[in-house]
Amino acid sequence: MNLRRRHKIGAEVNTSSLNDIMFFLxxxxxxxSTLVAPHVIKVTLxxxxxxxxxxxxxxxxxxxxxxxxxxxxTLVTEQQLNxxxxxxxxxxxxxxxxxxxxxxxxxxxxxxxMDIASRYKLKLVVAAQKK
Length: 131
Fold this sequence. Notes:
Elements: H1 16-35, E1 57-63, E2 69-71, E3 74-76, H2 78-86, E4 95-101, H3 107-119, E5 123-126
Parallel strand pairs: 1-4, 4-5
Antiparallel strand pairs: 1-2, 2-3
């Protein structure tokens, strides 16, 4: 009596579910990597008893489409704008001028604000919308 099998059964591993697992792992790591700040260095700062923090001040200057100037929602002339920004002269590390210009505004009033801010060596930021 011959008890041997005619067909050999090969060991087989079904890997079709591994594709799903690898996809979910890849997706998890891609999402998790966007939440991690890669260029952050954690530093414990030393303590000082006489240290003072310098408060930062943002001055918002707006230019509408008619070329009018606004400082913090108050309508001003170009001369008043010049005097206001002149009062911050020498405080460039404390004051940042933020320019909000209408997209349909003329270029010259916008350039005037940039010129006045650079004359007094103030930091300048131009506000824009995302596309």
